[in-house]
Design a protein that fits this description.
685 residues, alpha/beta, 7-stranded mixed β-sheet, 24 helices, flat, binds adenosine-5'-diphosphate, binds magnesium ion
Length: 685
């Protein structure tokens, strides 16, 4: 557990401290000295009495008691040193920079576990091994550069990779983004990304803590912990953005179900972040741009005004915002007339408000004020202003500095002249501001944030879900694919509508059930898993003659144990799938049914159990959502029914972890009903 000795040590020993600043032990000492650490600082080095101007001890046993030890020595010496520090020097915080542990093989793994055990048993905190260190307000305990600018309200940042942490900081600095702390957790022997989040959550103080948290993570060994603390922090008012690297679907190749093929283990991460309310970013630039948006006042809606003196970037920003579902609403004519009166002839006040290249500072000033004070339908402004060669950029940035602070609405500055007005821009950022050098990056970040739902409630909906019946069915069946009749029972226990169907083995049986149901009908083989692939589905059977012919043909398909008759339905085909992901639980995915789903990959994922609002947001975030709503004269489907089925299915799964894969593909939906016509469920016991 992270402790105060790690964050605010009164004394630090750099074990392996060196005169050579091209070595980790030399550089970390230098960074701590340059960072102005005010406590006691010393080194341990067998050959020296003084290093870089600080006292050095030749042996670990010679040093005075110390709060924090930073180890930059070969891995094989680490255990002994930690032992002495714990037993004799009251040390309870350790950062092990050294590599050569679990990343290097079995022996390293054992050593790492032993050291973590030693520290843990003493109630101490261990960061690393194999990390670049940490940066807090008291000391700069990293051996890398750049050490970011620190500010109380900057971002708290935790990274599972040291090198990537540096590159993320490199991406942040030119934008003016600041940090409040940086944690590189390396091999996470004791403290991983989840534990850092836990620490932030437990110690969160709305007056003092940074409300912005950034995460770079490669593996999530404890998804529940991450979910719990991330959503808790967001509920307390924090904003969290994260990169989870390793998003390709290699893991899913062996899956036999449709869901297995499209729900990669990345869908689990996607679902987890969605549930927690974390804004998921694909790369470093996106992460630091999202973080820069977080530095502004909160954007309360989706309506943006763009104020510019250049047409092109305003159009690109408009496109990026619209593509992500945000609006650039037209400005009412009365207001347009007033705004036009403030600008040069030839300017446009429709939105984007194009002040044209000759715009003056005074014009910019009054237009911003007008939009902020008089246009209620606008939630946020973005101002594009580059060096037009005619304006004193210092004054432009000075004006924006005042407006960003003074305006009620968030104002995002797009200041592209990072080269020609470099110094002026630097001064602007030094006042605590960030810059968005690229309008499309800003547009994408804003839409990504506005499309990230709030953390989900921790509820489970059991209305109309018969849990004892579900358990009875699951306990009573053996492993493998479930029989059609069992599937029917199970889905009915969760109140999920299933098509009328019956299985027949003889010709007489099939004729009798068909006449009870009435034509048109659908015939399907029972036995083969992928029925269409073996010619085992015939739609639209309208006569007994056709029925008998198809029955005879299907009976002869290899692996067939019977033939199923179903009512023939019409409507929009939908899909719901579920997959059990170890550690995460059931991932539920939804989308349109049909053969193109896999190619287009237009699915949303959620983590069971799901609430109605989560299911609704999954449905709305599909690209195919307009089809679900109804498009071009084609009626849509009942969205709330679809959401209800997703919710009840997720509740069913919560009580049936034996279900490893499930495909409901398709469900046939209309405005009146949504009905499952094909379901596959695989159980492992
Ligand atoms: P499989 O997925 O094993 O190939 P399905 O039962 O999903 O078999 O049937 C294949 C396709 O036939 C479905 O995707 C759907 O388009 C159509 N279909 C199946 N059952 C019905 C039905 N009862 N009413 C209307 N169309 C159906
Ligand atoms: Mg199917």
């Amino acid at each position: 557990m992270i402790n105060d000795k790690l964050i605010n040590p009164g004394s630090i020993a750099v074990v392996g401290g060196s005169e050579d600043i091209l070595k980790p032990g030399g550089k970390i000492l230098k960074n701590i000295i340059d960072g102005g650490f005010s406590g006691d600082l010393f080194a341990v080095n067998p050959g020296k009495d003084s290093i870089q101007g600080v006292k050095s001890y030749r042996d670990i046993t010679d040093i005075p008691p110390v709060d924090l030890a930073i180890l930059a020595i070969p891995s094989k010496y680490c255990y002994k040193v930690v032992e002495v520090l714990i037993k004799e020097k009251s040390t309870r915080a350790f950062i092990i920079i050294s590599a050569g542990f679990s990343e290097a093989g079995e022996e390293g793994k054992k050593l790492e576990r032993n050291i973590a055990g030693l520290v843990g048993n003493a109630g101490g905190c261990l960061i690393g091994p194999n990390c670049i260190g940490i940066v807090t307000h008291t000391y700069h305990g990293v051996f890398t550069t750049p050490v970011p600018k620190l500010s109380e309200r900057g971002c708290d940042f935790v990274s599972g990779s040291g090198a990537t942490a540096m590159f993320i900081i490199e991406s942040a600095l030119p934008k003016g983004l600041r940090f409040s702390s940086v944690f590189s957790v390396g091999n996470s022997a004791q403290t991983g990304v989840e534990e850092v989040l836990e620490y932030w959550d437990i110690t969160y103080d709305p007056e003092k803590s940074s409300p912005i948290k950034l995460i770079y993570v490669e593996t999530i060994p404890n998804p529940d912990k991450l979910l719990h603390h991330a959503s808790s922090l967001i509920r307390k008012g924090c904003r969290i953005a994260a990169i989870k690297a390793g998003s390709t679907g290699a893991g899913s190749r062996a899956a036999s179900s449709h869901t297995g093929a499209i729900a990669t283990s990345d869908s689990a991460v996607e679902a987890l972040f969605r549930k927690a309310g974390i804004v998921r970013c694909a790369g470093r630039e996106e992460l630091t741009t999202v973080a820069s948006v977080f530095m502004h006042k909160p954007l309360k809606g989706r309506n943006m005004a763009i104020i510019t003196h250049a047409g092109g970037p305003a159009v690109m920003l408009t496109d990026a915002l619209s593509a992500g579902g945000m609006n650039i609403p037209g400005i009412p004519e009365i207001d347009q007339a007033k705004i036009l009166g403030m600008m040069n002839p030839g300017a446009s006040a429709v939105n984007p408000i194009d002040m044209i290249a000759t715009a003056t500072l005074e014009q910019l000033d009054s237009v911003i004020d007008y939009v902020d004070r008089n246009l209620d339908m606008i939630d946020g402004m973005s101002v594009i202003f580059g060096n037009n060669g005619l304006t004193d950029m210092t004054r432009v940035y000075e004006l924006l500095h005042r407006k960003i602070i003074g305006c009620d609405k968030p104002l995002y500055p797009i200041l592209p002249s990072i080269s020609s007005s470099h110094e002026e821009l630097e001064n602007f950022m030094n006042k605590g501001h960030v810059n968005f050098p690229d309008e499309v990056m800003l547009g994408e970040a804003l839409t990504k944030i506005s499309n990230t739902p709030n953390p989900a409630e921790e509820e489970i909906f059991l209305e109309n879900v018969d849990v004892p019946q579900i358990r009875k069915i699951i306990v009573g069946c053996s492993g493998g694919y479930l029989e059609p009749s069992v599937i029917q029972e199970l889905l009915r226990a969760a109140n999920i509508p299933v098509v009328r169907e019956a299985v027949a083995v003889t010709r007489d049986e099939i004729i009798s059930v068909a006449s009870q149901m009435g034509y048109p009908l659908v015939l399907k083989v029972v036995g083969p898993v992928h029925k269409s692939d073996v010619g085992g589905v015939t739609l639209n059977i309208r006569s007994q003659e056709h029925l008998e012919a198809e029955f005879t043909r299907m009976k002869n398909i290899e692996g067939t144990t019977g033939v199923m008759v179903q009512e023939m339905l019409s409507g929009t085909e939908l899909f719901i799938g579920a997959k059990y992901e170890p550690r995460f639980g059931h991932i539920i995915i939804c989308g349109l049914g049909g053969i193109f789903v896999e190619v287009l990959g237009d699915i949303s994922s959620g983590l069971a159990p799901l609430t109605f609002s989560e299911a609704g947001s999954m449905i709305r975030s599909l690209r195919a959502y307009p089809i679900i709503k109804g498009t071009r004269g084609k009626p849509g489907i009942d969205e709330s029914k679809y959401a209800g089925i997703i919710v009840r299915l997720s509740s069913l799964l919560r009580f049936a972890t034996e279900i490893k894969e499930m495909d409901l593909n398709p469900l046939i939906g209309s405005q009146k009903s949504i009905t499952v016509v094909d379901a596959r469920i695989r159980i492992e016991k």
